[in-house]
Description:
The complex is a heterodimer of chains A (320) and B (354).
Chain A: E1 6-16, E2 21-28, E3 41-49, E4 52-59, E5 70-75, H1 83-90, E6 96-100, E7 103-104, E8 114-120, H2 125-137, E9 141-147, H3 156-163, E10 167-171, H4 180-185, E11 191-196, H5 199-211, E12 219-222, E13 233-237, E14 242-246, H6 252-258, E15 277-287, H7 295-300, E16 303-304, E17 310-318
Chain B: H1 27-31, E1 49-50, H2 70-83, E2 88-90, H3 95-112, E3 117-122, E4 125-130, E5 135-140, H4 151-156, E6 162-169, E7 172-179, H5 188-191, H6 196-199, H7 211-220, E8 228-237, H8 248-251, H9 263-266, E9 267-278, E10 285-295, H10 296-299, H11 303-315, H12 318-323, H13 330-338
Antiparallel strand pairs in B: 1-8, 2-7, 3-4, 4-5, 6-7, 6-10, 8-9, 9-10
Helix pairs in contact in B: 11-13
Amino acid sequence: MSGSTRLPVIVTEVVEVNSLIKRFRFVREDGGLMPGFSGGAHTVVEMDDNGTRRLNAYSLMSDPSDSSGYEISVRRDETGRGGSLFMHSGVKPGMKMVISQPVNLFGLDLRAKKHLLIAGGIGITPFIAQMAQLDTLGHKFELHYAMRDRELGAYMKELSARYGDRVHPYYDLEKQAIDLATLLKTQPLGTHLYVCGPKGMIGWVLSTAEKMGWPKGALHSEEFLAPPVGEAFKVELSKSNITVNVGPTQSMLEALEAAGVDAPYLCRGGACGQCECKVNAVEGEILNYDHWLSDEQKAAKSHIMPCVSRFKGERLVIEL
Amino acid sequence: MSLDDAFKDPFFRDESFFGDYTYRNSPHAVNRFPFPFPEDDYMYSVNMEPHVAGRPGSIFEHYFDVDEHYVSEMRDRARVLEQDPLRCQSLPHMTLAGWDLLELIMEKFSEEYPQWFSLTKDGNKWHWVNRPLGIDQKFTFLDESTLPMGPFEYITRQAQGDFTLQDQRDDNLWIEAGMVTSQADWSLDFDIGMNFHEWHAPVPLAHQMGIFDRALKFLLALQYGAPVRRFNWTMTVDPLLDTSPENYHKWGPSKTTMTPETIGKRQHLRVELQTLIRLPRSNAIVFPIRCYLISLDDLVTKPKWARRFHRVIKTVPDELATYKGFIRNKPMILDYLAKYDDGAPTSPGWWPED
């Protein structure tokens, strides 16, 4: 599965949206049309950062019906592992890059009578594509978008111009907050709720909705986790019969790839389940950070997600 | 552009799949028949491989295979739909996926068979010509009111094989649209709205093997641009495409009428080429199930197939022979095939001459 659907592209635009966010546009290197996609899809961007291979997933934010190119927005993270910094400082118009075909783990449920979209910060990007699609399809939707301040409220102006009072901004520094309870109470039956933003916001929105009796199937969220940094550790691969060292700022998946192992992946952020791996032996503590494994699996230490999980202890053997 | 009224390509056979059963495979069609057994025994497996262009002349040469039975199969589909319109259904939220499929089929057909099909686009104003079926249609893409019926029914009345559309949500797949007129004893009207595990519930043995959990996980991650395929197979008496449960009373009893004299002509191996394709706008998965039929008499003209098929049928467990509907005639089929098994080894793979 990994690497089988890569698209060679050229960066045609790098736009500084504000002090933290840059927007990138990709077109196909061979001049052809981009594959169609559905609102909520992401692409994995491959980076060659001076010999270090970095792969980060970013939501597609362009109009799904526009096949001439793809656009993503990247928020600079000074304390991260370097992917967003590379995008900000290393990627220039005219550069050749490789991205994956789109994958959607945050799809619209087209059975919905209405789509209620709740975004926090850079979590706005998948909704920009979804709103374009919903608008074309003539579906009912409403966006509630929380940002730190007007300066960082990327895309607010364009969205208001396009969708008018279907878009509601909230600025933290102006002490504005979403009145979630009222908002959820006043939705028509059959509304689906989508939330994308910081972890705390997603948890707050989903737990509030659940407490108010919203059906689980009507709640959708997406959060890509950046692989966390930690202590270095070793992992033994039972099938490949090698031992791989994982560095403090490297994910296990990246270390496996650097060692020449073709490990499966899709989102690289602990959400899709594709890299799930059996644990053959463990003496120590698995640090699970994913959204995928069940509590039972975590307690049994039977499986691990190499894209985000780390390890602390004597010995870890995985089936790969 | 006006249609050539006199269009008639002798490539397409004029034949029936019911009543007098004039369906036949030409020698060309026998040569390219997708014999689904790469080894001498058979057991379930997920057995997926990438759906990429294969050998020229084979059923894998094109994205969608249009063969000599095309026109007659489409006529048979229209006949079945006239008797039972519920063979084609699409829940309202699947309309976008229907457009996705319409676009895919029109694009692939016109690229790969320009002598028969053409598609021209001016923005969303599209013009589709299907010469074998005499169709010349101008319409607006994504505007249902410009087609004589919904996009899914419109295009699947023009493409061989059954089609189902699966919506993806809640980490599952839901079969919520289908055009099913050439099925191996299952019913769209019964299955529509079910999720992946529900519609596979009747399959024996495979659950214990964990096959469905693995297959579902694989499919949820199916990527756009990377379709996959697999074979399935069963047995059918007479070249009947529509072996639906709704009509079991019409075709089921034919199993009791087989004799050693007629079995070679009437017993058919039914092979399904199943592909799974992620659709772009809807994120749905389309599941085309293309059916190929071959009589035992035609099958045994390939010595490798004859030997191997005998060994496969011999080793199929009774649960499977029952599920696949030929337990009753299994001894007679084995007697027939035994004559063609000289005990020689068979080469790996399913191509007849390799």
